[in-house]
Amino acid sequence: MLKKLVGITSALALTFGLAACGSEETGSSSDSIGEQLDYEIVGIDPGAGLMKLTINDALPEYGLEDWDVVEGSGAAMAAALKKAYDKEEPIIVTGWSPHWKFASYDLKYLEDPKGIFGGAEDINTIVRLGLKEDHPDAYKLLDQFHWEPEHMEVVMGLIHDGTEPADAASQWVSENEELVSTWTEGVNEVDGDELQILYVAWDDVIASSHVVEIVLESIGYEVKLTQVDAGPMWAGVADGSGDAMVGAWLPTTHADYYAEYEGKFEDLGPNLSGTTQGLVVPAYMDIDSIEDLKE
Questions:
Q1: Strand 40-42 relative to strand 68-70: parallel, antiparallel, unpaired?
Q2: Interior angle at CA 201, CA 198 and CA 204, nearest 5
Q3: Which 3 state secondary structure label does DSSP give 285?
Q4: Is it true that the peptide bond before 282 is cis, omega within 30 degrees of 0?
Q5: Nearest alpha carbon to residue 91 among 13, 33, 140, 167
Q6: Cβ of 265: how many Cβ atoms within 10 Å?
Q7: Which residue in 73, 68, 91 sits closest to 229, CA to CA?
C-alpha cells in the first residue's frame, strides 16, 4: 500500500515546529527515533524520483508502514534541516549529492542494505531531436559539457550564500577557463541564435543550467532559461518546445520520464557522474541504517 504524502500544512508545521521535537512536551531521549519525529521524513517535491523510491519502495521494503513522507520542495527540506541542525535535534530528510548541505553541515546517509536507492547515478544532458542539425555548435558544446561534483558544489555554495545564480555561474566560468575551454573546443561563434534550456528548481540543476547558459552566451547564443517541474521539463524537450536540459538524473530518479518519452529525444550522456541519493540525517544522530527506523 502506498504511503500518503503529508500536505504542505504539515510541512510548514514541521519546519517551524520542529524545535519541540525531543523536548519534555513531545518526547524524550528515551523515545525511539520514530516517536521523536512523529514518524515523518522530510521530503521534496512529489514528482521527484527520490520521493517515489522512498514512498513506493523503501518504506514498504523496510517495513516502515507507520512512517510518512512530508511533501514540499528542496528549499523547504533545506529550511527544516537547518532549523533542526542548529538546535541539534533529530531529523530525517530525503537527500542527494552533490548538494551544498553536505559542505555546510556534518551529515551522513543512512545505510541501505536492501539497495533500494541504487548505486551512484549520473546527471545527463538531454536535447530535442533535430538540435544537431538546427544548432550544430550548441549541440557540440552541450555534448562536450562535463564537470565534477566538486565543481558543481562551488556554484551551489555561492548561490546558497546569496549570490544570484547567473552571477555565481559567471564567476565560476571565469575562474575555470581551462575546463570550460574543453567544452567549447571546435565550437564556432554564432550571431544571436536563440535557445531554450528547461530546468527544475533543484539546487544542482539551477547551478548546471546557469553555467551552461553563461558558456552558450559567450559564443553568441541568446539563451532563455525556463523553470518547470520535472514532468514538463521532459515533455518540453520531447515535443521540441524546449531545446535541451542538463538535469536528467539517471538511471533511477527520472527513469519513468525517460521510459515515457524514449525515442522523442536524444541522450548525450552524463555531464556529471558520481551522485548519491537516499535518506540523510545529521551525523550527531545515533542511527546508521534505514533498518534502525523500525526500532
A1: parallel
A2: 95
A3: coil
A4: no
A5: 33
A6: 23
A7: 73
Per residue in 241-273, pLDDT (tens digit) is: 999 999 999 988 899 999 999 999 999 999 999
Helix (H, G, I), strand (E, B) or coil at 83: helix
97: part of which helix (H) or strand (E)?
strand 93-97
Q: Where residue 65 sits, what CATH number does that domain have?
A: 3.40.190.100
- Do 236 and 242 touch, CB atoms closer than 8 A? yes
Based on the fold, state whether residues 112 and 39 are members of the same structural domain.
Answer: yes
> Does residue 53 sit in the same domain as residue 189?
no
Q: Enter the DSSP assignment of 25.
A: T
- At how many degrees (to 10) do helices 177-184 and 136-144 cross? 130
Is residue 146 domain-shared with residue 158, that is, in the same domain? yes
**Residues 11 and 108 occupy one common structural domain:** yes
Residue 92 vs residues 22, 37, 96, 163: alpha-carbon distances, Å: 14, 8, 13, 28
Confidence of residue 73 (pLDDT cuts 50, 70, 90): confident
User: Chain-centre distance of CA 62, in angstroms?
Assistant: 24
- Mapping DSSP to helix (H, G, I), strand (E, B) and coil, where does residue 106 land? coil
First to last CA, the chain: 21
Give the DSSP H or E segment for 295.
Answer: none
Domain match, 157 and 45 both: no
* Range(s) of the domain holding residue 86: 5-118+277-294
Cell of residue 63, nine digits: 517495513
